[in-house]
Amino acid sequence: MIKRIVALTALVPAMLGPTVGIASAHSAPPATAAVVTLTYDASGAGQWAGPIKQAVKNWNDAVHNVRLVPSSTPGSADYVYEATSGWPQATLGPIFPGGNGDVQLGRQAVDEGYDATRIAAHETGHILGLPDHYSGPCSELMSGHGPGTSCTNAKPDAAEVAQVEKNYSAGTPAMRPQHHQVVIDIWSGRVPTASR
């Protein structure tokens, strides 16, 4: 009987060892990249302050590889928001620290009935590297004005979140591109872009 207990005592740790090792390997959290912090300046955005605040919160709540924070020194922000009278437009990123992004929040879209917070969140999506997808449903933030004025969704969907996470998964690149495209969100079927 004692030999059986000794044998069982030796066998139990041997059996549990791999099981314990496997269980702990699965419960370990995945390694994450350093979070990229982008600063923005909204001092020239006037009446867009509330929609910008909500749009930034929506993005910060959704993604983990990049954080959007107001710049303590407006002239040194990675991108700026400004109020304009035309159609919304933005630099197509992804923008990285030291970047030169621009979001023009056009009053014309609001005057035609589009939701200001959705516009601000959509244009911020361009800064984070997402292109337009006007044929998408309202649940897609980057469908922009495609679903019409009744669409007020200002939060990115899972696919959009995944793309932004991928855009910033390597952290801050050593070299940033010098030229970006500007995406003008107009209602016509084509989207003109210009190099910057």
TrEMBL record:
Its cofactor is Zn(2+). Pfam families: Peptidase_M7. GO terms for molecular function: metalloendopeptidase activity; zinc ion binding. GO terms for biological process: proteolysis. It catalyses: Hydrolyzes proteins with a preference for Tyr or Phe in the P1' position. Has no action on amino-acid p-nitroanilides. SUPFAM superfamilies: Metalloproteases ('zincins'), catalytic domain. Keywords: Disulfide bond, Hydrolase, Metal-binding, Metalloprotease, Protease, Secreted, Signal, Zinc. The keyword Aminoacyl-tRNA synthetase does not apply. One of its GO terms (cellular component) is extracellular region. Its main location: secreted. Residues 1-25 form the signal peptide. It is found in: Secreted. Belongs to the peptidase M7 family. This is Extracellular small neutral protease.
